[in-house]
Amino acid sequence: EVQLVESGGGLVQPGGSLSLSCAASGFTFTGYWMSWVRQAPGKGLEWVANINHGGSEKYYVDSVKGRFTISRDNAENSLYLQMNSLRVEDTAVYYCARPLYTSGWAGFEYWGLGTVVTVSS
Amino acid sequence: QSALTQPRSVSGSPGQSVTISCTGTSSNVGGYNYVSWYQHHPGKAPKLIIYDVNKRPSGVPDRFSGSKSGNTASLTISGLQAEDEADYYCCSYAGSYTFVVFGGGTELTVL
Q1: Which regions of chain A does DSSP assign to beta strands (E)?
Q2: Taking the C-alpha atoms of B13, B103, A102 and B47 in order, what is their torsion angle to the nearest 10 degrees?
Q3: DSSP letter at B51?
Q4: What share of chain B is helix, strand, coil (3-state, %, to 5)?
Q5: What is the pLDDT of residue A105?
Q6: How much is the pLDDT for A79?
Q7: Mean pLDDT (10-residue bins), chain B, 111 residues
Q8: Which B positions 9-68 lie with beta carbon below 8 A of chain A?
Q9: Stretch A36-41: mean pLDDT, rounded?
Q10: What is the average per-residue pLDDT within A52-81?
Q11: What is the sign of the dihedral through the CA atoms of B79, A97, A1 and B33?
């Protein structure tokens, strides 16, 4: 059974940092790109970042470029998101997501339950 | 403001059909046949119900169907059931730079 379990969320002040983790199991982790998707309160979903199989390619939504860093540890089957210079507008539930296919794009087949990040003074 | 536009809410009675629209541009919905739809019950993980515009993952009932015309994609749910009450999000591939964009979500109420 595929499982994605996020952790690391919490309350942080504006300008602060937080590191999120996603523990993956039930599939060959190295076979898939992985992504972070977030949902701000009362808003829709927003893709945040993704990373290729080996971690050499990383892409970000413009609003987090230079502040967030996605990474992965294939030996530990884990995905990470280091969030620096956090802003109030980064407040959201952050989901770890796996695509349907090992290559190409069709959709996110598996999601975690999410971890809540609140940026507030 | 989400990149894709969905109605905020739709409703229908059990057994009826509802259609949720998702309007984008030629840079996303209109430019690629990579529209996906997700069902999201609050507190649970989103669930992929349609991919590649009109394909259903294994286990998704054929009551759920997808289509696209120009820059607008649609999700139709026929034979509404109480458990269909949820939020629904559309998503489209938007190129290697933007990757994917989502709609703002539609709340489905089963009356």
Answers
A1: 3-7, 10-12, 18-25, 34-39, 45-51, 58-60, 68-73, 78-83, 92-99, 108-111, 115-119
A2: -30
A3: B
A4: 5, 50, 50
A5: 79
A6: 98
A7: 92 97 96 96 94 95 97 98 97 89 96 91
A8: 34, 36, 38, 43-48, 50-52, 55, 57
A9: 95
A10: 96
A11: positive
Q: Do A108 and B104 make contact, defined as CB atoms within 8 angstroms? A: no
Please list every residue in chain B whose beta carbon sits closer than 8 Å to the beta carbon of residue A46. Answer: 2, 102
Which pair of tokens denotes residue B35?
């529209």
- Distance separating alpha carbons of residues B64 and B88, to the nearest angstrom: 12
How, if at all, do strands A10-12 and A115-119 pair?
parallel
Nearest to B100 among A4, A43, A47 (CB): A47
Chain B residues in contact with A51 by the CB 8 A cut-off are none
Mutation pick from A64, A108, A110, A115 vs chain B, by most beta carbons of B within 10 Å, is: A108
The identity of residue B79, as a single letter, is G
CB atoms within 10 A of CB B58: 4
What the block records as the tokens of A102 is 């090992």
Q: Are B29 and B22 in contact (CB under 8 A)?
A: yes
- Whole-angstrom CA distances from B62 to A65, B27, B55 are 40, 29, 10
What tokens does B27 get?
């840079």
